[in-house]
Amino acid sequence: MRPRITRSVVIGTVLGFSIAGVGLGAMLGAMLLTQHQLQKGITPLEPAPYPPPPVDATPATVSPVLFEERAEEIVGAWPDPGPFDGGGAELLPLPGMDAVSPADTALTVHVGHGACDTEFGAWLRETEELVIVGGWNVPDPTVACTEQWLSDPYRIGLESELGDRPVIDAVSGAPLSSSR
To answer: Distance between CA atoms of 108 and 137, rounded to whole angstroms?
Structure first.
């Protein structure tokens, strides 16, 4: 006795092959478009990165005093400043930064902040030998918030080209790692 092929099995099979054909067609179309662009010397557009916050937008409620004291300590103890104990919202460690080159005149650092913080940013101190950065945030005292910790980009302008100066995290006292 032969198995019976039902209408739903036939419809499912036809739809499956149709969907696979559409996917294959889209893939082939993308490959042909890329090949055409390469032959014509057209470079495909890359998606624009998430725009960083404005440079040096520090609210009046955050004081740079703690950062400045720590930056002086790092400069005086360089190359072995050691870690810093504390700081709170006015001096936070930075989890990283975007890749940089010696000709760069700005840095994009990643600032950690709470999900309900109203503002966040980074401090900057430049010397001839070092670039020292530290994060800050402004918690919202009017809301009960989750213990979520986020990291977002923040762009900081430099007074001169980065050159061969290391970028130092103010809290850890260590060079900040970069990635892109």
So the answer is: 16
